[in-house]
Predict the 3D structure of the following.
Amino acid sequence: MSQMESGKAFEYSILKEFKEKLDSLTNVEIIKNAALTTAQQCFDTFSKQEQGRYLLTAIFAVNFLMDIEPRLSNDIGKDDILQLEILTDYQGQLGDVRDILVIRLLQKWEIGVSAKNNHKAVKHSRLSNDIDFGEKWLGIKCSQTYFDEISPIFTPLKKIKKESNSKQKWTTLANKEDNIYVPILNAFKKELYRIYKTSPIQVANGLIEYLVGTKDFYKVIKGLNPWHIICFN
């Protein structure tokens, strides 16, 4: 299974356990959207044994969050509905790194959960010949010098993709470290430092907001054996 499928399955596991644990304690509503459908489909592709592992970690996480967030299980009346929603990937592009949102509209309260399966990365960042990471991450455009430097690296890759009809595998490329990774990262490093020198405070703030988002959340990490919860405020 891909990292995307396992990640979406873990998101669904947490949502499912929130629903099952809280259903008898308060009014719970699951928001139906495309992200929920995708997550459930990914979960259903796993074997019952693997689903059980996801759900076991989700149970530990939900029990812990119920202990430290009393509003999860305590409403202020029958109209105080607890809504559960899996957020779309598009919302992540807008700076919200949370995967699952738990909301009480009546109390104007919410908590978010970022679900990570077997990795602790805050965000999977991408570089390409047409991504202006400076503008996208920091609000400051990259220079033409940066694009001129990375274009000769990406152009052959685009040609390979086109000629193979997107079928040639990345593993077949030789000397990737010397020919692709290192030159791109060196160009990225130089450009990031150039932008930093023009506006160090904006870059510092922008990097933090880009990597960990602009909302409070709990990150739940499912490892091969232990599991972790980290709070970002």
